[in-house]
């Protein structure tokens, strides 16, 4: 008997689309959307029990994309999908056309942005000492989404830090378990993670649709299969 029954991709997609339709749009300090109950709970557990060790990173330098650390990052690639049913179900759900259409409708993105883009999912496990300097995501990301899978008494303090156009700290997103935040990268979308104690592991999923020009093809869930709105 399986330890955990992973939900079918169509059920994951249906659950997520409902959460996306119910999202709350906020305009300050830049447009973003907040979600609650983002994924089915048993899928969240399926991710949390994956035998993927948090990377040992001595110094992140305030960025994730360092050449020495890139090989330690965990992306939901075809190999990881083949190894773990939870990863396969997760990626298949977010590749589905109905999810792509709901992103397009909720975020107000043109079909030309979504059609032909590629799914990128990173499983992030930050440990004590991790931090991210204020930055804006690159325009190759059509949208940036973070789903928080933080647990423990300190988890409430592990949300993303938000800054205004002058890079002044203005607030922090909630890191409530299974909540999410989405924004469209732009010149004013400053965010990061100020250095503070992490007792345990800060777990989150970063999900993007990226443009065909994305260079790191080994990060993509389906490098030979772009997103389609049809189906």
Provide structural commentary.
With 231 residues, the protein is of the alpha+beta class. The protein has one domain: Jelly Rolls. Helix content is 25%, strand content 23%. The protein contains seven helices and eleven strands. It has a seven-stranded antiparallel sheet with strand order 1-2-9-6-11-4-3, with helices on one face. A hairpin with a 5-residue loop joins strand 7 and strand 8. The longest helix has 13 residues. The protein starts with 8 loop residues before the first helix and ends in a 21-residue tail after the last strand.
Q: Strand sequence of the main sheet, in spatial order?
A: 1-2-9-6-11-4-3
- In CATH, the topology is named Jelly Rolls
Question: Which structural class should the secondary elements be placed in?
Answer: alpha+beta
Please tell me the overall pLDDT.
92
Spans where pLDDT lies below 50 across 5 or more residues:
none
Number of extended strands: 11
Calculate the terminal CA-CA distance, rounded to whole Å: 34 Å
Strand content: 15-25%
Within CATH, the superfamily carries the name q2cbj1_9rhob like domain
Looking at the overall shape, the CATH architecture is Sandwich
Helical segment tally?
7
Most strands sheet:
7 strands, antiparallel
Shape annotation: globular
Number of domains: 1
Output the CATH class name.
Mainly Beta
- What sequence of helices (H) and strands (E) makes up the elements? HEEHHEHHHHEEEEEEEE
